[in-house]
Amino acid sequence: MGVEMGKQKKIFVKIVACLILMGVAYRLYLSIIIPSSSSPQFIAHYSPPAPLPQLPTPPHPHPHTTSSPGSCDIFTGEWVRDPTGPPYTNTTCDTIEHHQNCMKNGRPDSDYIYWRWTPRDCNLPKFDPKTFLTFMRNKSMAFIGDSISRNHVQSLLCILSQVERPVEVYHDKEYRSKRWFFHTHNFTLSVIWSPFLTEAKIFEDYDGHASGAVRLHLDQPHSEWVNQFGKFDYVEIAAGKWFLKTAVYYENSTIVGCHNCKIENVTELEFDYAYRRALQTTLGFITKSDHKVYTLFQTTTPDHFENGEWNTGGYCNRTVPFEEGETELRDIDSIMRNVELEEFKKAVGDTNGSTLKLFDTTRLALLRPDGHPGPYRAFHPFEGKDPSAKVQNDCLHWCLPGPIDSWNDLLINILLTE
Ligand SMILES: *[C@@H]1O[C@H](CO)[C@@H](O)[C@H](O)[C@H]1NC(C)=O
Ligand SMILES: *[C@@H]1O[C@H](CO)[C@@H](O)[C@H](O)[C@H]1NC(C)=O
Ligand SMILES: *[C@@H]1O[C@H](CO)[C@@H](O)[C@H](O)[C@H]1NC(C)=O
Ligand SMILES: *[C@@H]1O[C@H](CO)[C@@H](O)[C@H](O)[C@H]1NC(C)=O
Ligand SMILES: *[C@@H]1O[C@H](CO)[C@@H](O)[C@H](O)[C@H]1NC(C)=O
Ligand SMILES: *[C@@H]1O[C@H](CO)[C@@H](O)[C@H](O)[C@H]1NC(C)=O
Ligand SMILES: *[C@@H]1O[C@H](CO)[C@@H](O)[C@H](O)[C@H]1NC(C)=O
């Protein structure tokens, strides 16, 4: 009898495991079949419209923390109401990008700006722009990554400009890489467009319409940031979503495989292979460089499309944060974050004098489905329109002001606790 029960249990466990794996496979499959042509550049495309089994969430508390007395994991905590609101508005900051200017674009609710990230075990002071600028005197900091990095820099700029208005001293042709100079503090702030961190030939127009697969050199760090690396004192790097795109992968200038390219005799590889290799190349370059830079390595930012994806009518109209346990990381994001944690752990053990810190914002971002522009990425999206008309939602980037402002509280906390 006991043996019988044991057997049945084992079979049941096997079936459940099988179902979970099928769910994962189905999602990966969908991420492969959704073509990257016609995808707006601001949103990555993946995961299916129907709810599917979830992988377990990453262990909690975070694996990188030590529980030595006095130390505190600032990334474990909750969003707490804060009636004082954000340090700037759409009128006191005039550099908010149109797609993130939710107030101006007519978003009707504003509760989402009255929350602050609050670590469970310690006090996280509010970002003080004066302290930050004093700390950064004679220094240079760069944010390297995709549009999430740009979103973060925008937030930082809005807060800093309340103390000193920077001068924009550089932008590239497409306004994706920019540099600002704060004269009074002799501080240079850059954002560098490098969505893959490694060398990539991207065949896409500004709206994200692809005319061919990305050609991605996984062993060559992107010259765009490498050429300037010697000038930086601080960098924050972040990537992720672009690795879901159709791409041909190169190492040593030879094709090693591809993702969804459907070229004869080219091995199909999953996106996490490429992501891992690109992170190894990037972190390897940083930790082997003779120029010692303080590096913050940011974990993936999940999106909040519900009842569909970015291209199938998905939306994000929640107006309050999730509570702990109310949501789970999707498997794509779990896979990405696990790769990030593993590669960070490897790199941090051998930095040769550089400082490497994890900027682990995945979970706190996950809890904020209410902070995205949604339809208000466009100016008054419903004005003069049939209410049933389809509008494009952005459930990945953040409204400014918005939840991303809290990232700066975390940033300065890490810098100052050195
Ligand atoms: C700021 O937002 C308000 C709505 O909250 C809007 O009426 C106003 O036009 C916006 N101003 C700017 C400069 O964006
Ligand atoms: C900044 O640089 C100037 C000129 O080199 C120097 O006088 C000053 O002490 C420096 N300040 C800091 C905080 O490093
Ligand atoms: C500004 O900072 C740079 C180092 O980044 C330093 O060489 C220079 O002397 C500083 N200039 C002034 C005016 O403080
Ligand atoms: C890269 O290619 C060159 C020339 O074909 C070869 O000599 C070298 O061993 C290769 N390196 C690796 C890491 O495969
Ligand atoms: C693919 O590989 C097969 C077997 O090695 C070969 O016969 C064929 O020509 C290859 N096709 C291409 C396009 O290289
Ligand atoms: C460590 O950095 C120093 C420069 O500070 C350099 O001379 C040395 O070669 C580096 N060691 C390794 C193993 O990269
Ligand atoms: C969000 O939109 C859905 C579908 O239009 C609707 O059923 C739901 O009530 C909305 N939720 C909120 C909080 O507005």
Automatic annotation (TrEMBL):
Record-given protein name: PMR5 domain, PC-Esterase, protein trichome birefringence-like 25/26
Molecular function (Gene Ontology), one example: O-acetyltransferase activity
InterPro entries: TBL, TBL_C, TBL_N
Segment forming the signal sequence: none
The keyword Iron is assigned to this record: no
Subcellular location: Membrane
Encoding gene (name): TBL26
Record key words, sorted: Membrane, Signal-anchor, Transmembrane, Transmembrane helix
One GO cellular component term: membrane
Pfam short name (any one): PMR5N
Family to which this protein belongs: Belongs to the PC-esterase family. TBL subfamily.
Transmembrane regions listed in the UniProt entry: 12-30
Domain Trichome birefringence-like C-terminal intervals: 124-413
The UniProt record lists the keyword rRNA processing: no
Trichome birefringence-like N-terminal domain segment(s): 71-123
Protein's membrane topology: Single-pass membrane protein
